[in-house]
Design goal:
This protein has helices at 3-19, 28-117, 165-173; strands at 132-134, 139-141. By secondary structure, the protein is mostly helical. It has one domain. Strands 1-2 form a two-stranded antiparallel sheet. A hairpin with a 4-residue loop joins β1 and β2 (139-141). The chain is elongated and about 110 Å long.
Length: 194
């Protein structure tokens, strides 16, 4: 925005605020005058926003185009990484199952020999865990994280449920609903003008 445009707008705003700083609403005439002033101020806000958009819309459109161009380049790579990670995790799970089975065989063999020889304490070698793998460029580690999915909504404790404010607002404003258990429905006042 040119400094001159901004200076002019700033002066207009200061003048408008100065001229109307003492407005009080005590009579019907004051109320009507307040409506007129409100309309003038709203028009000024719109004029300022329109001026801002003159400057920012081309920038926003340019940013959107640039983001789309780069998204087109990264999207296939992100898809590829997702498939690769899925394959790596599948292999890891299968390999871990194999190692666990091998560990059980070693333990069973050691216990059998210990029993055969009458030994009470048994040392069992541990099969290596494959949490971390080193490559030429990267070290990859498998972490286990807790996650969840919904199994039965009726069994979910109340503390984990959320109210759908948008749905309630729509039902109250547009659906004519005036009674919902646990919800206080009321009217608020707001001004509108033309």
């Amino acid at each position: 925005m040119e400094k001159n445009d901004l200076t002019i707008i700033k002066q207009e705003v200061e003048t408008l605020l100065y001229e109307n700083q003492a407005v009080e609403i005590k009579t019907s005439e004051d109320y009507s005058k307040g409506g007129d002033i409100r309309k003038i101020v709203k028009m000024k806000i719109k004029k300022i926003e329109d001026k801002r958009k003159e400057y920012t819309q081309p920038l926003d459109e340019s940013k959107r185009r640039i983001m789309a161009d780069f998204q087109a380049l990264t999207a296939p790579l992100e898809d590829f990484v997702g498939r690769l990670e899925s394959n790596m995790l599948t292999w890891h799970r299968e390999e871990q199952k194999r190692l666990d089975a091998e560990q059980k065989k070693i333990e069973a063999k050691a216990m059998k020999e210990a029993k055969k020889e009458g030994i009470s304490e048994v040392r069992v070698p541990i099969v290596n865990n494959i949490q971390t793998q080193r490559g030429e460029v990267a070290t990859t580690t498998v972490r286990k994280i807790w996650s969840w999915k919904l199994a039965d909504i009726n069994k979910v404790p109340r503390e984990f449920l959320a109210v759908d404010a948008a749905k309630i607002g729509n039902a109250v404003r547009h659906g004519g609903i005036r009674q919902i258990d646990g919800i206080e429905i009321y009217q608020e006042e707001s001004l509108s003008g033309r």
